[in-house]
């Protein structure tokens, strides 16, 4: 028998493994770019220090240690992605339990995959296209509140755009049975919502012109890839568990 508790436990377990593997991807693909960005920041800071401050003060600035070492940050990466995966898995399971009846497919596995795809588009891809992430060494600390608020707004807008697309797709079905009507209606509503939001939201670009563009986009694609790994594993893992549950239930009923 499928209960809310069973669905939630499945989400937490799948989220944990998805978070660990996403952390592994981020460690392999993202950490080298972060090290390179930090090296550029330190080189720029050292040049600035030597150029504007008295020589007697320069050694003190150079010897300043970060609050968390790079090794600590690397360990924290796995911890953060694991906790994020668990939290996301729990939220995913709650969303699946609440929306399952509205997802028009008899297959729980397809429903889980569709929900994961919608979550990735709304929560990850839409904010990424408007405010792509920057390496930790890039950005103005004084604007972090503004950047956090605008990012949260794009996250909400992304979910609203997905909802608008699905609602418009079902509504467009009234105008005929042609196979293109539903995707066209849904796609149009999604794009219009996103474009309107992007025009209203402020643009934020704090990357120095001297920062290497190749390194910047390598970091951004590594960040997007980490999220893609997390959501893909979450969707397929949850779908696999739901498929296994369905088979066990059928075998039990048949027996």
TrEMBL record:
Name of the protein in question: Putative cobalt transporter CbtA
Organism of derivation: Kribbella italica
Transmembrane segments: 7-28, 75-98, 110-129, 149-168, 180-201, 221-241
A Pfam family assignment: CbtA
Signal peptide: none
InterPro entries (UniProt xref): CbtA_put
Keyword Membrane: yes
The organism's place on the tree of life at top rank: Bacteria
Presence of keyword Membrane: yes
Keywords: Membrane, Transmembrane, Transmembrane helix
Organism phylogeny: Bacteria, Bacillati, Actinomycetota, Actinomycetes, Propionibacteriales
